[in-house]
Amino acid sequence: MESRNHTDVSEFLLMRLTADPELKTIFFNLFLSMYLVTVLGKLLIILAVISDSHLHTPMYFFLSKLSFTDICLSTTMIAKILVNVQITYTGCLTQICFALIFVSCENFLLGAMAYDGYVAICHPLRYTVIMNPHLCAILILISLSISIADALLHSLMMLRLSFCTDLEISLFFCEAVQVIKLACSDTLINNIVLYLAVSILGGIPLSGILFSYTHIVSSILRMPSSSRKYKAFSTCGSHLSVVSLFYGTGFGLYICSAISEFSRKTAVTSLMYTVVTPMMNPFIYTLRNRDMKGALKKLIGRVPSFL
Fold it and tell me: Are the C-beta atoms of 246 and 69 separated by less than 8 Å?
């Protein structure tokens, strides 16, 4: 196959949602609606946390940061799906870089929220001492720093790749594994670094989540009061549902990417990870959280006074 250097690559071709003009309009309206629901839901959570003093706790502090990260991730992914199927070389690398940053940040934030739940349930008397504002700020800064460094590393390593004439990406958005597969040059180092980073940056927070929930469940089962057990399970249930969605769809996407060629069904599954999961998160957190529902009612009740 004819090879050319990356400086000659002008654009990549993404997978089409459909070739039918009528269906294209339907899909456009569908994804636009999902994006707007995601952004509106996340903004309501952020504003509720800011406006209600009862929600000025570490758990809701991390939740507001998670909501902002979801907005950024959805904007990074859905914006290009709504526009067209062609993306420039620079635009593709930029999308990969920002997607890696936001996915990694979400990964660390879910780990931090699990640790917060562990301290709250297993060490309630020391909660305010351990989960102080200084520690929360440090956790956010460390998460962001590691995420940016990881994304820049992968993006810079892709600059050394040369590509063949076939520049069709088997997804609706640019993704690191798929772009590396299109390269004609040696990609061994890129693949080693990529999967090593995924194993470490994904494994550490996931291990922390499993550790936290093992101790949380053990502590809850030892509680004598049924009402306390229900309240504890209810508090952790929302986070556990989001964790299951995030890691379940994420692992499914990367396992399929590693062991087989992408099919259209797999590409559709990838939309679950980047579109549906962020949209579902606000409903999961608000429907099972009495404090959040109360804060949202107060926030919405204030709207007429500003009109």
Answer: no
Containing H/E element for 163? strand 163-164
* CA–CA gap between residue 119 and residue 122 (Å, rounded): 5
Per-residue pLDDT at 7 exceeds 50: no
The fraction of the chain above a pLDDT of 90, given in percent, is 33
Position 241, amino acid: S
| Contact criterion met (CB below 8 Å) for 16 and 256 | no
Helices (H) and strands (E) in the chain, counts: 11, 4
CB 229 within 8 A of CB 107: no
- pLDDT confidence tier of residue 2, bands split at 50, 70 and 90: very low
Sign of CA dihedral 10, 14, 20, 21: negative
In the numeric block, which tokens belong to residue 129?
């001492």
Supply the angle between the helices 226-259 and 89-122 in degrees, to the nearest 10: 150
Q: What crossing angle do the helices spanning 290-306 and 21-51 adopt, rounded to 10°? A: 100
3-state helix, strand, coil in the chain (%, to 5): 80, 5, 15
Report which secondary-structure segment, H or E, holds 7. Answer: none
Distance of CA 214 to the CA centre of its chain: 23
Integer CA distances (angstroms), 273 to 52, 239, 252, 288, in order = 31, 16, 9, 22
Give the bridge partners for 13, in sequence order. 86, 168
pLDDT at residue 129, rounded to an integer: 93
The tokens for 285 are 């957190």
The pLDDT tens digits for 158-217 are 988 888 776 888 777 888 888 888 888 888 999 999 989 988 998 999 999 999 999 998
Residue 294 is predicted with a pLDDT of 82
